């Protein structure tokens, strides 16, 4: 599994490598977060205990676009 960390602590930076995720009725986030696309890493599925939210197709598209730019794809 490939994971992109999210942050909920402190102010969300205005960084081109992070995608802001605002809570709404669909994503189940408790507070504004950011997908930290600069910190992509592999994680064993056994370390994933629970899903904390679902970003939806629009935010996922923004994350994919940001990853493509960072990886020069």
How would you describe this protein?
- By secondary structure, the chain is α+β, with helices and mostly antiparallel strands.
- Helix content is 21%, strand content 19%.
- It contains one helix and five strands.
- The strands form two sheets. Strands 2-4-3 form a three-stranded antiparallel β-sheet, with helices on one face. A two-stranded antiparallel ribbon has the order 1-5.
- The chain starts with a strand and ends with a helix.
Series of secondary-structure elements, N-terminal to C-terminal = EEEEEH
The helix/strand class is alpha+beta
Largest sheet: 3 strands, antiparallel
Strand line-up of the largest beta sheet? 2-4-3
List segments where confidence is low: pLDDT < 50 over at least 5 consecutive residues. none
Q: If you average the pLDDT, what whole number results?
A: 81
Number of strands: 5
Task: Give the N-to-C terminal Cα separation.
Answer: 20 Å
What is the strand content?
A: 15-25%
Helix percent reads 10-25%
Shape: globular
Whole-number radius of gyration?
12 Å
The total of helices stands at 1
